[in-house]
Amino acid sequence: MSTPREGSGSSERRGPVRAPQGVAGGILLIALAALALWLTRDLDQGTLNAMGPAMLPRWLAIGVGLSGLALIVFAFIRDGEPLERWSLRGPFFIIVAILAFAVTIRPFSFGPLAIPGLGLVAAGPLAIIIGGYATPEARFRDLLILSLSLTPFCMLLFGDLLNLPIPVFPQELAGLFPAGWSQRAILRVTAVVMAAAAVAVFFATRGPRNRTIDVADHSGRI
Amino acid sequence: MGDLLSNLSLGFGVALSLQNLFLAFLGCLVGTLIGVLPGVGPIATIAMLLPITFGFDPTGALIMLAGIYYGAQYGGSTTAILVNIPGEATSVVTALDGHEMARQGRAGVALGIAAIGSFFAGTVATIVIAALGAPLTGLALIFGPTEYFSLMVMGLVFAVVLARGSILKAVAMILVGVLLSTVGLDLETGEERMTFGLPFLSDGIDFAVLAMGIFGIAEIMRNLDHTEHREVVRQAIGRLLPNKEDFKQSYKPVLRGTFIGALLGILPGNGAVLGPFASYTLEKKIAKDPRRFGRGAIEGVAGPESANNAGAQTSFIPLLTLGIPPNAVMALMVGAMTIHGIIPGPQVMTKNPNLFWGMIASMWIGNLMLLVINLPMIGVWVRLLKVPYRMLFPAILMFCCIGIYSVNSLPTDVMFIALFGLVGYTLIKLGFEPAPMLLGFVLGKLMEENLRRALILSRGSLSTFIDHPISASLLAVAAILLIVALLPSIRRGRDEVFTE
């Protein structure tokens, strides 16, 4: 990630940097170009007549680097945009949610860490509930109901109706059902159970005052 | 002419089959849905739904995906008029006068004229595609690698000129996009390029992953930065059918908007986005009383809405005839076609006439369906607008994960959408527009292939691009365009068009 506080103190547009956004963008481009040049350092460039694998990437990287340089130069000459405020909460929760989905959807091992494949039945709610906290207005009850109703919908749509090759539930779950049951039947029963849970949560927590959750909302932004 | 009619009747034969009708309807419905919902674009949606189409035959799959794209153009106007938030990028200008009309209690008329204008534009665009398809395909057959390369260079220059904001940044984004496309195995030598030694990168970066990350995930992150205020218009929507006076005022803008939109849509480099802006500017310029604009002028809705629908449809032309996707949505169409074993390009029309003409005919049918989906069912969409974003985005997030996982069954793909989402968010925050990058990425592989071939044919002489007359004139157009765009006076005009 590039540094959000690049050219600090220039937001009042008094310092030599007149377009902080341009400087940050330029640095990003130059870094990218340098990375590409470094990665293609061992490859053959070839000639125009018989281009090698490195010819195009190398020239493109040089072009990217030059654009970055030009952006930085212009940032000192012309007024431009200041850096926008970055919020970290949104990207953080979104990324964690996606990663949670990726590691739980099927067996995953990373070094000593091994996670059993839990399938959509766990990965879906995880993604929804973790991701939901990306906004400071998140309410656990709403997210729980959303995840318990949307996941069975997706299970039926993608797993049952459209037959997509997506793991739906962990194999351990199949052991809980009588031996004769087909995968489809287990899928459908699980979906119905989840949907019923969603309805149950909805009615059980529909108390006259569950607005207490709102109170903590306003300080959430980082 | 007789040819055209027989081709179209073949197309309608295909498109009117029960399955294809259903798929067109489904596509239009989903398209309207995502068009109405701000923050969900057609690019992310089509990327999400790609795996679903695996089970269909290619014609049906493409009919549905196309429906999503032009359906979104209809739906976007609903949000623009009722909430003053553009549901899609192309309905930004509709919000200006459309929302004003709604506040005056004429929401129904605005919605009505938008839908009727779009339908007219869609009909004309369908005919334009059908009529231009054959001659342009003929043109494509005389194109060699040299001409193809120059044509793509021109397309990228168009994308630069049409992008919002700094031209320098747009150029940088295009170069980054082409650079990203060179990741993976080298086509000729088989050597790995910039893969970090990772096996899943040796096939290159998957386009669906890149698009979903940059347009799906990054959009969510960006939307979360702005707390939105949705004020759905409280007034009654009122009658939907415009009266005689409304028609009199708006039929000329519709005609002009259709013409402008269709013309710009054909241009490689995402001209479709410019159509509504150009149409609005034109209507305002030639109006007797320009002050009415921004205060609920019906022309300001009729023109741009026709333009965006016409452009959305004619942007299929470069893809279907030349095999060159002019924007990111069309690039996803290339993905969908290759999944089904169809190589986009001039041979589609001769080898798969059913697909080519079926898709064109389905567009007209789709437009007719959209008229029904949008006007009588408007109440449903209004209710949908009341779903808050905090409930919407977790759902989008999960759909993105499921969609991208289903393409290759790889958890690494899912992780990559998080990475590209972060990259896209960083780019947006630094004032770079990601769309040109995606276009550069899409055209990158084709460009490298054609460049290498052209240079082998010419024995390494770069002058081949100037010696071939067609290639030389394409490059000249590109150069002139770039110079003109850089002229200070034009630049100011360009900025005006985009800020209006």
Rg calculated over all Cα atoms of chain B: 22 Å
**Approximately how much helix is present in the residues of chain B?**
over 70%
Total domain modules of chain B: 1
**Total count of strands of chain B:** 2
Main sheet record of chain A: 2 strands, antiparallel
Number of discrete helical segments of chain B: 23
Low-confidence stretches of chain A: 1-13, 209-222
Write the layout of secondary structure elements.
The complex is a heterodimer of chains A (222) and B (500).
Chain A: H1 20-39, H2 55-77, H3 89-104, E1 108-110, E2 113-115, H4 120-132, H5 140-161, H6 171-176, H7 183-204
Antiparallel strand pairs in A: 1-2
Helix pairs in contact in A: 1-2, 3-4, 4-5, 5-7
Chain B: H1 2-15, H2 18-36, H3 42-49, H4 58-83, H5 92-103, H6 107-141, H7 145-162, H8 167-181, E1 184-185, E2 192-193, H9 207-225, H10 244-266, H11 274-286, H12 299-314, H13 316-322, H14 328-339, H15 347-351, H16 353-374, H17 378-384, H18 389-408, H19 411-429, H20 434-457, H21 464-467, H22 469-486, H23 488-499
Antiparallel strand pairs in B: 1-2
Structural features:
heterodimer, A: 222 residues, mainly alpha, 2 domains, two-stranded antiparallel ribbon, 7 helices, elongated, disordered N terminus, B: 500 residues, 23 helices, 74% helix
Describe this structure in words.
- Chain A has 222 residues and is mostly helical.
- In chain A, 55% of the residues lie in helices and 3% in strands.
- Chain A contains 7 helices and 2 strands, in the order αααββαααα.
- Chain A has a two-stranded antiparallel ribbon.
- In chain A, helix 1 packs antiparallel against helix 2 and helix 3 (89-104) runs antiparallel to helix 4.
- The longest helix of chain A is centred in the first third of the chain and has 23 residues, at 55-77.
- The two termini of chain A are 17 Å apart.
- Chain B is mostly helical and 500 residues long.
- Chain B has one domain.
- Chain B has 23 helices and 2 strands.
- In chain B, strand 1 (184-185) and strand 2 form a beta hairpin.
- In chain B, helix 9 runs antiparallel to helix 18.
- Chain B is globular and about 70 Å long.
- The mean pLDDT of chain B is 83.
